[in-house]
Design a protein that fits this description.
173 residues, Double Stranded RNA Binding Domain, six-stranded mixed sheet, two-stranded antiparallel ribbon, 8 strands
Length: 173
Amino acid sequence: MKFLNTALLALILVACAPIRVNYDYDKQAVFTNYKTYQYYGDMETGLSELDTKRLLDAIDAQMVAKGFSISETPDFFIDIKSAEYHTPQRNSVGVGLGGSGRNVGGGISIGIPVGQSNVNKQITIDFVDENKKQLFWQAVSEFSFNPNAKPEQREEKFNAVAEKILSEYPPSK
């Protein structure tokens, strides 16, 4: 029962936190020419080694579901970069003091922030045609991230991110 509650809570947290994605692509690219892929060997994702593995596994699962395959002689390469940033907490508690008297008034107010700042991640995924030496598709995703999340929660988050990112690949013209 405890596992079910934990799984339900994790699903709700993943579902409630929006994953925003912006896409861009080369309008001249012929996406039907790209069937196999590989990751750059010297890729520095900016994620921990374990999170990088989780993200690559999630991307591989989505790519295989779309009919793509990983290859030693790929049609294109995938490059991944990430950044982490903090947004300030907007909730605050106001403590005020005021007084009034015969034509005299005054007051003071202090805002005390409640909670911590939110941690967000931005992941950029580039699809690069190495033969032409050019980028032909890019997705930039932003989502809230809990650095203290358990491994299962991180895996669920990266699966959701990969699904959302690759939902628009290949683009419909």
